[in-house]
Amino acid sequence: MATETTATPGRLTFLRVTVALQTVALAFQAVTAGMLLSSTLGAALHDVGSRVMYGASMLYALAAVLAWRPGGGSPRPALYASGFLVLASIQVVLGIAHMPSLHVPLGVMMFTLSVLALVVTGRPTDEKGPKRTGRSRLGTH
Q1: In sequence order, what DSSP letters do the residues of 77-135 get, joined into one string?
Q2: Residue 80 CB: number of other CB atoms within 10 A?
Q3: CA–CA separation, 26 vs 111, rounded Å?
Q4: pLDDT at residue 1 above 50?
Q5: Apex CA 129: angle with CA 124 and CA 131, to 5°?
Q6: Helix, strand, or coil (residue 76)
Q7: How far is the C-alpha of 72 from the C-alpha of 94, rounded, in Å?
Q8: For residues 44 and 92, what is the distance between their CA atoms, to the nearest angstrom?
Q9: Residue 126 — left, alpha, or beta (φ > 0 → left; ψ -120 to 50 → alpha)?
Q10: Are 61 and 78 in contact (CB under 8 A)?
Q11: What is the 3-state secondary structure (H, E, C) of 5-74?
Q12: Helices 76-96 and 100-122, axial angle in degrees (round to 10)
């Protein structure tokens, strides 16, 4: 018999930690991409950071699958994480091929998506949806 588990708000879970790690790794990549323009150290750091970012994406995918299958959660994070792993793979290929015209915009998009995933992962879920109070969002009737 499977039991369904849900994360309590404000509690760190493996999924939240992995999304945060991925987001930090992507931010590091943005910084080191800028450093590429002015120093050789930037190239070395960007290379190491790319490996960390790809590993963080794989860890995020693993955490999402573990939260879904044995944890009884929604399959949605696993789908997002799988899609993100595909984007990370494309990003690595574009970086190796030295195609900055595609590599840089994809990196910006990946960072944005990772921040969104971090926000969504940290938000409490309610199966019934948001509660209505009879007031509009602006506080007027």
Answers
A1: HHHHHHHHHHHHHHHHHHHHTT-HHHHHHHHHHHHHHHHHHHHHHHS---TT-PPP-SS
A2: 20
A3: 6
A4: no
A5: 95
A6: helix
A7: 36
A8: 15
A9: beta
A10: yes
A11: CCCCCCCCCHHHHHHHHHHHHHHHHHHHHHHCCCCHHHHHHHHHHHHHHHHHHHHHHHHHHHHHCCCCCC
A12: 160
With 0.70 as the threshold, say if the pTM is over it.
yes
Instruction: Report CA-CA distances (Å) from 37 to 31, 42, 60, 94, 136.
Output: 11, 8, 30, 18, 49
How far apart are alpha carbons 52 and 24 in whole angstroms? Answer: 10
Task: Please state, in angstroms and rounded to a whole number, the distance separating the CA atoms of residues 85 and 57.
Answer: 6
**Residues 129, 138, 124: CA angle, nearest 5 degrees:** 30
Of 3, 32, 19, the closest CA to residue 122 belongs to 19
pLDDT digits (tens, 9 = 90+) for 61-116: 999 999 888 877 788 989 999 999 999 999 999 999 999 999 999 999 999 999 99
Euclidean distance between CA atoms 40 and 57, whole angstroms? 26
CA distance 124 to 50: 31
What's the sign of the alpha-carbon dihedral 30, 35, 41, 44? positive
